[in-house]
Amino acid sequence: MSTLTAERPTTFAGSNSRARVAVPYQILDPNGDMDIYARKSVSRKGREDRELSVNQQINDGIRWGEWNGYRPRFVWVDNGISGSKDVHRPGYDAGLRALESGATRCLWSYKLDRFSRKGALAVLTIMDRLEGKRIFFGSDNLDTSEPKDRRMIMWRAEDAKEFSDQLSDRVADAWRYSKDEGIWLAKRVPYGLKKDPKTRRLVPDPSPAIPGEPDGPTKADVIRRIVREVGGGATVPVVITRLQADGIFPQPGRIWSPNRLYKILRHPAYIGFQPASDWDDREDPIYRNDKGQRVTVGKGVVTEAQQLKARKVVAERTALFGKKGTKRGVRSVGRHELSGVMHCSGCGRTLIKRGRSFGCPHKNAGGKPCDNPTSITATHAESFVFQAFVNRLTASAPDSPLLHAVAARWLDTHRPDSVAERREAEERLENAKAALEDLVTAKYKRKEFEGPAAQFYPGLLKEAEDAVRAAENVLSQIPEPTADIGYLLDADTIREAWEQATTEERRELLFLALDGVCVRPKFGAGRTPVTPERFHYAWTGINRVITPADVELVA
User: Per mean pLDDT, which range of 207-221, 281-295, 333-347, 536-550 is the poorest?
Assistant: First the structure.
């Protein structure tokens, strides 16, 4: 009769094997009449094992069977599977099936808590189905076939469940505390970051991205490059092609995938924040503590503004298709200063640049044809739109609705973290005031705190008032974010910024004040001069009605 050795391959359910099927971990005697069940909650490699190992449990079972006149048949093992959670345990199910079908007369388990941590009811349900067969818990010296042991088995089962529940609570509390302290808890650290062994917080990874080239880019530099290039308008497939052409791969023998890059553009750790559980499926992927505050997890690789800019570029290239709203990437990228800005007055479609002109795409687009298509030379359009942009901003008063809207857009683009922090504090204050108002209404209008319930009102009122004061205190400590748009009030500084900007930066500059430009067809036949009357500008924050003053500003 063989015993386990350390060299025996662990190809049982719960190991690294992909198939979680009921395959015996070991066949001792095919004609035997006793099975052994062993379980460990956590499968550890290269670490001190605090639970009795699977090998020790099975060896104890073999010895017990030999001493009590049984011939051990199969060994069933669940490794790395909880006994308290409602999860599938292939070895556990196989051992019970063998017992209930009559394939064996006895099922041995090292200890009751190794067998189940679901409480007395779960164990009692199994005991009532045995009918003459037995389960023996070796370390507890309890036998289901002995009436005197049944009560003790129930007590031990409840004790195991209570211990498991308490352990789960302690683990959850420790996990939550570590999260709130900004400690990185996940086993894997995102590419481009590393965990400081002393603080257990994340820092940029300075190791070389190309093996054998210490003077080349670091892994943190690769993350910065990905965010920068995507934010500059490059598509994810193009970025992947560039990285692999430069010999940069995520791991030796692995290649970059679009999904991996999309996660980099959303992962909170790259901007220094703790990710929430299942962050990739959340609208807001950043973890927040009980006070609703975002928790830092170390030093980020890129700024939040850079990451949000890249995400915005990707979102602009993403369309929804089908009834279920499936997201699908749109390969077209804004390659010109006025891409996506110009619209046809005849049908409202976005003008497309072909050659040296912007024209209505009604002939190539489906749907109703355009009755009055427009077309305009690109150089004229760029000159008129930019001149209108300069004239409108420099002629606007400091308290005009346009400049207020421009400042708000500038903050959303360049100071998203400050805006989000201030907005969250304002929302918490509004919620606290709403809760206080609801409590007072419940007292004096709905009459809910009458009779015995009246004694609870003063305490609840104090809590609600304290919450409002705390929210007001937090909001008062957060400065109002200010927008640095002084350069947009002077024509010379605007032109200087325009000349130094890239195409994508010029588009961002225009979109600070412009929602769109409606272009009318030319007036007259043949070659006619381009006049300001052909353009109708939709400025953000103001009424979209053209006036004589608007025409004078673009002249």
Answer: 536-550
Bridge partners (DSSP) listed for residue 298? 202
Instruction: Give the tokens for residue 227.
Output: 């965010």
The tens digit of pLDDT for each residue in 422-438 reads 877 888 888 888 888 88
Tens of pLDDT along 10-63? 333 333 333 344 678 888 888 899 999 888 765 444 444 444 678 888 899 999
Looking only at the bridges linking them, the beta strands covering 342-344 and 514-519 are parallel
Closest C-alpha among 459, 417, 173 to residue 290:
173
Single-letter code of the amino acid located at 280: D
Paired with 343 in beta bridges are 350, 518
Which residues have a Cβ under 8 Å from the Cβ of 384 and sit 6 or more positions away? 530, 532, 535, 554
**Positive or negative torsion for Cα 219, 223, 226, 232:** negative
Q: Can you tell me which residue has the tokens 């909650």?
A: 41
pTM more than 0.70: no
pLDDT (average), residues 365-383:
82
What confidence tens digit (pLDDT) does each residue in 107-157 have? 888 877 656 555 445 565 566 666 767 888 888 888 887 877 777 777 766
Q: Of all helices (H) and strands (E), which one includes residue 537?
A: strand 535-539
Average pLDDT over the chain, rounded to whole? 77
Q: What is the C-alpha separation between 382 and 137, in angstroms, rounded?
A: 84
Provide CB contacts within 8 A for 90, sequence distance 6+.
Answer: 13, 14, 20, 21, 22, 23, 76, 78
- Segment 480-502, tens digit of pLDDT: 777 777 778 888 888 888 888 88
For residue 301, give Cα distances in angstroms to 76, 204, 209, 411, 457: 48, 6, 15, 21, 49
DSSP collapsed to 3 states, 6-50: CCCCCCCCCCCCCCCCCCCCEECCCCCCEEEEEEECCCCCCCCCC
Q: Could you tell me if 547 and 553 are in contact, meaning their C-beta atoms sit under 8 angstroms apart?
A: no
Q: What is the largest CA-CA distance in the chain?
A: 109
Residues 126 and 135 sit within 8 Å (Cβ to Cβ): yes
Q: Reduce the secondary structure of 270-313 to three states and give it as a string.
A: HHCECECCCHHHCCCCECECCCCCECECECCCCCHHHHHHHHHH
Give exposure, 28-66, as e/b (b: 16+ Cβ within 10 Å).
beeebebbbbbbbbebeeeeeeeeeebbebbebbbebbe
